[in-house]
Amino acid sequence: MAPAVRTGSWVLGVDSGGSGIRAALAPADAPGGGPAASVAAEPVRTGPSGIDPEHMAERLAPAVRTLLAETGASGVDAACVGAAGMATLGDGLRAELPGFLRETFGVRRLALAADGVTAYAGALGERPGAVVVAGTGAIALGTDLRAWRRADGWGHLLGDCGSGAWIGQAGLEAAMRAYDGRDGGSQPLRTRAEQVFGTPLHALPGKLYPRPDRPAVLASFAPEVGRCAPRDPVAAGILRSAAREIARSAAAVCPEPSADGTEPALALTGGLFRMGATLTGPVGEELAARLPRARLVDAAGDPLQGAVAVAARLAAGSLALPADPALLRLVGA
Amino acid sequence: MAPAVRTGSWVLGVDSGGSGIRAALAPADAPGGGPAASVAAEPVRTGPSGIDPEHMAERLAPAVRTLLAETGASGVDAACVGAAGMATLGDGLRAELPGFLRETFGVRRLALAADGVTAYAGALGERPGAVVVAGTGAIALGTDLRAWRRADGWGHLLGDCGSGAWIGQAGLEAAMRAYDGRDGGSQPLRTRAEQVFGTPLHALPGKLYPRPDRPAVLASFAPEVGRCAPRDPVAAGILRSAAREIARSAAAVCPEPSADGTEPALALTGGLFRMGATLTGPVGEELAARLPRARLVDAAGDPLQGAVAVAARLAAGSLALPADPALLRLVGA
């Protein structure tokens, strides 16, 4: 028996980030209902023009063909590609991806989104509010549905304040202080660093600096800071400072309550918050102090679900999230 | 008429760091009196075995031959090579350089020193005390003439607290905070960052992260923090924090007064302190609070002079600074 084939419109969502690419195809009128595929486990290459559009296209094409075959769809009506670095490194994608997706899969309407925007759409849908997305890095995005506001996301040397890399770096710095006998050191963090990296600490620079993925190496130590925090005041202080930075970023982007008094929604998303109450406790306290106007809600979905949802709204011609040249570029809409 | 030729013993000092290599040759009994040569303006390459000994040798050889010809010396009795990274990246130099210098120039006694040790010898000679060497990075070394103590110098991701890179990074982070509208931002630093880097700040990550010399780029902004400090409390706060870190590092390595009550000497050396009173004022206050037992003195000489002085003491068989496997390796002494 032939599979039941939907003849309606189909939409594609793509989520591209530091841990690889994922894609999902869904009926435009039921964006929660389609199959998803893990396209590749490595991130898309970054070259002189930023994120490499050919590299993304050649990884995406076979995965989308597989999804089309699974669903029996003949093509894609609308798509949303969310990518880490879209705002600052997305020129190549903005130049090349629309033509590729139109010619290869018939995509007529396309959204090119910063990963923070797809995280927002996944977490909060089209409500006014703010999200903080924190993993190795950290960025906050907020909107009143007229414009976007962004805070941080500037990378481990210029910001990403409160992120995994930020917490891990502060933890390793405290370990080195203890090794040196300087003020502000933490013996528990020193012990954990020696065990995790398998080296006396004077050899840690030689292990860290040659690595191309230094921010990820720093972030790998963040869970150790979380583990030490209940019994180590230095580690607890690092998490308190991170919580303050996260709340500052949220406060900088969160809109005012709407005219009818509805409070903006606020969601915390990303792998950092899996650290649990040792971090989310202080974050909740700092948010209550700095952003009492917002209502903290659980994220409804992830960035891939957000990308599919944006594509579905594009297909319906009813996207409420505001376009933005860097954060949410709409093509053919 | 033939030049007057000294027939006594000659010693060689070498200073290798981020801004190149310099060498100086001097009579062993008058180490202040010889000619110096700038060997190369670029730093010695770093490879898989650390600082590349062949690269250093091939740059050093013609410069030393020139110095020998200038002085009429027939060879070198003792030498001291001070190099940035000697402690952690010096395995290749320790393996190869002694044989090269013995076979090529007849060097019988050699000291392989961390640049902090030659800075110490240049600044304080062979007195007990401590130095803080701060430029792009920052390290503190102290000795009671029995052993060395080291603090920091772990690079821009693990420490170098209070250094040029540290101050510049804090300044740029404050600029990004102002750009975002986050707490803790500085509009004066934002304005200076836009002017210095010639870009709106959202494009700064794209200018910084592709650079191989990111710590130097960060440090290049430190003087701007110094310029803003008199009228900007955020910039002043950064310098106050840097001063505190410098004092903490000094306190961690400075020896106790000697048995006869002589206070240890303390010197601040390196390019960072050219920032002047805007930094040295707070550093003096923090040192007075944390390290009242030390006497702050002006550095007598630079690291190249320190290297020559160590070589002269080696030639005389009377080096008082203590040997150390990583910081001051003595060969043939």
UniProtKB/TrEMBL annotation, chains A, B:
- The protein depicted here goes by the name ATPase
Which is one Pfam family of this protein?
Answer: BcrAD_BadFG
Domain ATPase BadF/BadG/BcrA/BcrD type residues, every copy:
12-308
Q: Where are the transmembrane segments?
A: none
